Amino acid sequence: MRILTILLVVGLWRAAVLEETNNAKSLFKSIMEVDRALAEEIKSDISEAKDKKDQLKDQLSQEIQNTVQNLKDALKEKVDKVREIEKAYKDQKSADKKQAYEDWKNLIQGINETKVAWEEEKENKIAEVEKEIQQLLNALRLEYEEIKKQRATQQKDDQEKYRQACQEKMEEMGCIQEASNGSSSASSGGRKHQKESTLEESLKTTFAMDKIEDVLDKVKAKRQNSVLVEPRATVLDEITGVSAWQTVTWILLALCIIMGVALIAMIVYQVAHHNKYHHLDGSNHPGERTPIARNMGPGYLGEGKSSPTPMSSAPPPGETQQF
């Protein structure tokens, strides 16, 4: 009856641990979805900036074309007028020739003034467009920094919640272990402690893998955003704040961390499974006694081997028979 009670307590404890693990996974999944949404929002803002830049370029090009066309029309009118003046100059007398010369001089001066005014207007338009683009990029950079700070704060809060949840779960596990130590043997207590350590290492490994996947998703999202923006290197450097080789270095570092975590997980898995194997004579632990009797199969009888003499005919007080 005591063994059934212990098994029931252990089963309830395992169910509670699985439920807490699922809650932690769902929490990290929601964090990843928020990061993806933020990446999509930044991508949309950069796309809108690019569209606005193209629109401003098209508008400036259209205005320049209109100005050039107006200048051509005015020049054509002036040329026609010059031709008329030349014709009148040939037909009229010397007094008319002087007036025609003055008109020609005024025409040349007007053309030069029109050209200077057009150049100034063109430079002003270009300066205004560049200023608007720079202001838009500055606004996007500030918004990105604000989102980055909010995300860092949220991640710290989530990590603190996760740490508190793990601490509470470890305290509950400690209470259950103390309750079960009164009715279990020293070897079973050691195996429960080993399972507890294995579970803690598994939780830490899962948490580290989730954080590494989060970093890789951020780097991948930034690389996807950089493909849609021209010029690519300039805007990517302004958004990330680092150069291209530093981004590659972070990617390689993340891959090294993944390989290290995978190696640690394999070692923990092998150690956890290795501790489950025990010798048949029950001498794996110094405090463990020799079993009451061996199971004699047909193979033992056929080979002529005899079973060793048992030390006692009943289990010691305070211990249960291990099967």
Automatic annotation (TrEMBL):
Residues 1-18 form the signal peptide. Residues 39-157 form a coiled coil. Keywords: Coiled coil, Membrane, Signal, Transmembrane, Transmembrane helix. Residues 179-189 have a biased composition (Low complexity). The chain crosses the membrane at residues 248-269. Residues 313-323 have a biased composition (Pro residues). Residues 178-200, 282-323 are annotated as: Disordered. It comes from the Eukaryota. This is V-SNARE coiled-coil homology domain-containing protein. It comes from Haemonchus placei.
